[in-house]
């Protein structure tokens, strides 16, 4: 006979041991290193700290340390703090309705303690000495008095050391550091009065103390460049909420949402609905797919906000989401339109328009034309959710091509079976007829007409040439007459460090120059016609986006350089240039499409024209 309940058929329902519960909870609360940072720093804010220092090593898998000068924990409470659902912040349900603190679930410390090695040294103001506690995998190893300043220092090392599956699941180091840095920025923005520093792998990423104790200067420091302090102030006060914050001018927009921070009752949250409200507020001033940088604080009666939706508290439920969306939308719209110079000339579409999806002339055209903003798929869903219908039909990328031409050329504009070769140009078998709209180059070969898109074709050519050059050592660069110092935002700096090997091979010569500044002394020859500083930032931004879309680092760098270096729609080419471009395209491995998948070349045969003209 055995006593094993599963064998005897008797199923004992027993409470799980606390250590196991904590480990399970850790799976929810502590998704990744960035979540540890957030929980710890929020505890420091809740403890009334006026300064917080964060240290991260090896994207958090080796060390995450948070040091504060807050109220500390008394000796008799230290162990309690690490036990489940122990919190000093709420005691009954009403408190939950009026929540103003970050923490309240009492889950963070026990969860972290159960999946890492934690050492905490803490001291309250009225105690002579501090207390040190060491916890490993949920087991208290040691509690003893320790000399310490008032406040709390916590070191979390070897995160997930006892949950190998989770440790393995940590994404690439670069992904985790990006999340960490973004959380550090959000935390620093959420409480400008609290001095905040952030170090990663021994280097200071940012330190915000004197001179950075207001939101405006923090946004400037973290999200704008040193020589640009233009910000649009956003304000609104209604029955249901209060809005405050700053957003960038449209020319500072990025092609991703990483620079846009939204807070509800000081808590950094992720909400596509609110992002939509912000971008929609800019109207046609913001090309689609662009997002301003900045920080918006929504103050809403805590009774109307449920933060207890998800253990990480990054999602919130609003009882009047639609009204909140509308108030924010109108606030942004009003402020943007009242701010002088927002739409001043000098905004170059080149920096704003995403060249990988639309051409410059198209962007200019769209920006001039009135159209309801932001018809991305995500915002469609949101519009539908909020209003029960979509305002506008999505414009799919396919609609950019003349459907008629695609139809008559059979396989969606594919290239002939007996393909043209570069030799056809050498031997004069191809005649350049001219260009249409400074974008489409038209050639004749025998009875066929070939049309190439000068931008996508050039992109394809540069892409392949650069990829080959990188694999065989490097690309030609063009030295700058005067090297330029460029100050990067913390997240961009981290990205630069990761990509530097490939940037170098692609022809950029950039070296770190103290703090978050880099010195740029050469650019890829293909980019030498344009402003080097702008090009460098644009390339970093592209890499960020392409990485997000799953592209590997090497290809992301090359793709960006190719796209940025390619002739644009609107550039006028000479006959010689047009023929050279076609020749290089014909020598490419893939002549049919650009690296983003848009067609480069299209053929129309005489037969197809005969059909069109009803001769057949
Ligand atoms: P919660 O923040 O939800 O209350 P935690 O597990 O994060 O739960 O923390 C448990 C308790 O430990 C807190 O309620 C607080 O009393 C105490 N505590 C945690 N971190 C700090 C800190 N940095 N300074 C002072 N007290 C802290
Ligand atoms: Mg907490």
Key features of this structure:
616 residues; alpha+beta; Heat Shock Protein 90; Ribosomal Protein S5, domain 2; formyl-coa transferase, domain 3; 3 domains; 8-stranded mixed β-sheet; 5-stranded mixed β-sheet; 22 helices; 22 strands; elongated; binds adenosine-5'-diphosphate; binds magnesium ion
Please give the count of helices.
Answer: 22
Attached small molecules:
adenosine-5'-diphosphate, magnesium ion
CATH topology of the largest domain: formyl-coa transferase, domain 3
Write down the Rg: 29 Å
Kindly state the percentage of residues in helix: 25-40%
Largest sheet: 8 strands, mixed
Strand % is 15-25%
Shape: elongated
Report on this model:
With 616 residues, this protein is α+β, with helices and mostly antiparallel strands. The protein folds into three domains: 18-208, 2-Layer Sandwich (Heat Shock Protein 90), CATH 3.30.565.10; 215-338, Ribosomal Protein S5, domain 2 (2-Layer Sandwich); 378-616, MutL, C-terminal domain, dimerisation subdomain (formyl-coa transferase, domain 3, 2-Layer Sandwich). The chain is 37% helix and 22% strand. The protein has 22 helices and 22 strands. The strands form five sheets. An eight-stranded mixed β-sheet has the order 5-4-3-6-2-1-7-8, covered by helices on one side. The protein has a five-stranded mixed β-sheet with strand order 9-10-13-11-12, with helices on both faces. A hairpin with a 2-residue loop joins strand 17 (440-445) and strand 18. Helix 2 crosses helix 6 (108-115), helix 17 packs across helix 21 and helix 18 crosses helix 19. The longest helix is centred in the first third of the chain and has 18 residues, at 173-190. It is elongated and about 95 Å long. The protein starts with a helix and ends with a helix. Residues 344-380 and 382-417 have low confidence and may be disordered. Bound molecules: adenosine-5'-diphosphate and magnesium ion.
């Amino acid at each position: 006979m055995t006593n094993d309940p599963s064998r005897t058929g008797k199923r004992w329902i027993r409470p799980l041991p606390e250590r196991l519960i904590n480990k399970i909870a850790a799976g929810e609360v502590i998704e990744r290193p960035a979540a540890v940072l957030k929980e710890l720093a929020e505890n420091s804010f809740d403890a009334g700290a006026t300064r917080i220092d964060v240290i991260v090593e090896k994207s958090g898998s080796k060390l995450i340390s948070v040091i504060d000068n807050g109220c500390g924990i008394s000796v008799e409470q230290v162990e309690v703090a690490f036990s489940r659902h122990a919190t000093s912040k709420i005691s009954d349900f009403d408190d939950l309705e009026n929540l103003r603190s970050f923490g309240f679930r009492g889950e963070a410390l026990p969860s972290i303690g159960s999946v890492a090695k934690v050492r905490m040294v803490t001291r309250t103001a009225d105690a002579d000495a501090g207390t040190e506690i060491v916890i490993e995998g949920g087991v208290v190893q040691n509690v003893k008095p320790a000399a310490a300043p008032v406040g709390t220092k916590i070191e979390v090392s070897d995160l997930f050391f006892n949950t190998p599956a989770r440790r393995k699941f940590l994404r690439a180091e670069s992904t985790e550091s990006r999340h960490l840095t973004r959380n550090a920025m959000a935390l620093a923005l959420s409480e400008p009065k609290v001095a905040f520093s952030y170090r990663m792998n021994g280097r200071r990423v940012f330190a915000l103390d004197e001179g950075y104790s207001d939101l405006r200067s923090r946004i400037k420091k973290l999200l704008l460049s040193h020589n640009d302090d233009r910000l649009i102030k956003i304000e609104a006060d209604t029955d249901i909420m209060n809005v405050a914050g700053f957003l960038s001018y449209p020319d500072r927009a990025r092609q991703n949402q990483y620079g846009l921070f939204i807070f509800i009752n000081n808590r950094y949250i992720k909400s596509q609905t609110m992002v939509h409200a912000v971008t929609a507020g800019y109207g046609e001033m913001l090309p689609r797919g662009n997002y301003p940088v900045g920080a918006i604080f929504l103050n809403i009666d805590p009774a109307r906000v449920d933060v207890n939706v998800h253990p990480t508290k990054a999602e919130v439920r609003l009882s009047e989401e639609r009204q909140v969306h509308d108030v924010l939308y109108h606030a942004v719209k009003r402020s943007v339109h009242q701010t002088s110079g927002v739409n001043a000339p000098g905004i170059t579409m080149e920096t704003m328009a995403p060249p990988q999806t639309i051409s410059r002339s198209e962007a200019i055209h769209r920006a001039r034309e009135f159209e309801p903003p932001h018809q991305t798929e995500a915002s469609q869903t949101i519009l539908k959710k909020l209003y029960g219908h979509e305002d506008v039909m999505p414009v799919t990328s396919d609609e950019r091509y003349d459907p008629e031409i695609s139809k008559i050329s059979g396989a969606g504009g594919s290239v002939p079976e007996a393909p043209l070769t570069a030799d056809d140009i050498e031997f004069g078998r191809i005649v350049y007829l001219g260009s249409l709209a400074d974008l489409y180059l038209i050639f004749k070969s025998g009875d066929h007409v070939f049309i190439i898109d000068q931008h996508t074709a050039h992109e394809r050519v540069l892409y392949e040439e650069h990829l080959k050059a990188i694999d065989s050592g490097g690309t030609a660069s063009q030295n700058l007459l005067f090297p330029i110092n460029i100050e990067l935002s913390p997240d961009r700096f981290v990205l630069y460090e990761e990509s530097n090997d490939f940037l170098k091979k692609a022809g950029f010569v950039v070296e770190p120059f103290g703090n978050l500044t880099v010195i740029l002394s050469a650019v890829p020859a293909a980019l030498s016609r344009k402003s080097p500083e702008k090009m460098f930032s644009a390339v970093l931004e592209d890499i960020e986006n392409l990485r997000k879309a799953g592209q590997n680092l090497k290809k992301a760098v090359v793709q960006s350089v190719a796209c940025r270096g390619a002739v644009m729609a609107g550039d006028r080419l000479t006959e010689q240039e047009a023929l050279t471009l076609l020749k290089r395209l014909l020598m490419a491995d893939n002549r049919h499409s650009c690296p983003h998948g848009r067609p480069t070349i299209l053929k129309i045969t005489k037969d197809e024209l005969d059909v069109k003209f009803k001769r057949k």
